[in-house]
Amino acid sequence: GAGVSQSPSNKVTEKGKDVELRCDPISGHTALYWYRQSLGQGLEFLIYFQGNSAPDKSGLPSDRFSAERTGGSVSTLTIQRTQQEDSAVYLCASSAGTSGLYNEQFFGPGTRLTVL
Amino acid sequence: GNSVTQMEGPVTLSEEAFLTINCTYTATGYPSLFWYVQYPGEGLQLLLKATKADDKGSNKGFEATYRKETTSFHLEKGSVQVSDSAVYFCALSDVFQGGSEKLVFGKGTKLTVNP
């Protein structure tokens, strides 16, 4: 596709349920990032993928959060046993990931998660 | 650790006014610095960047200079337009574990420009 896409655009769930958020990066981009945007905490990094591996998971807030990437393309962020504080906009970004240079990250439109 | 502090606003200006949004950073290495913009209902977009000290990034009439001595990257525009109304985020990136270039963002500054 032309840009990064994310689905669903909105997700409302009940506390305690599991949710899966999907990201389709720009074709050919090897690096993929997940961020979270919330009123209280601003924009925070969650996890970084290079290809299918995740060498930097330092931003995941708890073990209820996990992510995977398959085929060097699509990524899924899973939140188990959702809590109200998980309510936020979850953003995905991808970049060409060429080492030695800063690679511009292109952001998707986000998934707005509301936990009731 | 690395962090970014920016003027939180909100900022309200009249069209053609001068804009400054302050941004300072703390970093252990030699980060790249960025301004991202989020227009109403749209995703984050890179506005401008600077990758080393004394570099000036510019785009759409906006400018910011990477000042290592003051650890600052203030955003300026000489004459704002209504269409500049958006939320502006200052950010830094360094190379972290595994080659991650994760962005560390400031809290964002909401700018409203009135006609």
Task: Describe the fold and architecture.
The complex is a heterodimer of chains A (116) and B (115). Chain A has 116 residues and is mainly beta. Chain A has strands at residues 5-7, 10-13, 19-24, 31-38, 42-50, 53-56, 65-69, 75-79, 88-95, 106-107, 111-115. In chain A, a hairpin with a 2-residue loop joins strand 5 (42-50) and strand 6. The mean pLDDT of chain A is 92. The relative contact order of chain B is 0.33. Chain B has strands spanning 3-6, 11-14, 19-21, 23-26, 32-38, 44-50, 56-59, 62-65, 75-77, 86-93, 103-105, 109-114. Chain B is globular and about 45 Å long. Classes of the chains: A mainly beta (116), B mainly beta (115). The A-B interface holds A 4, 31, 33, 35, 42-45, 48, 50, 53, 55-56, 58-59, 91, 93, 95, 97, 99, 102-105, 107-110 and B 32, 42-46, 49, 51, 89, 91, 93, 96-108.
- What order do the helices and strands of chain B follow? EEEEEEEEEEEE
Give the proportion of residues in helices of chain B.
under 10%
Low-confidence stretches of chain B: none
- The structural class of chain A is mainly beta
Taking the sheet with the most strands of chain A, its summary is: 7 strands, mixed
* Overall number of strands of chain B: 12
What is the radius of gyration of chain B computed over CA atoms, rounded to a whole number of angstroms?
Answer: 14 Å
Oligomer: heterodimer
Largest interface: A-B, 28 and 24 residues
Succession of helices and strands of chain A:
EEEEEEEEEEE
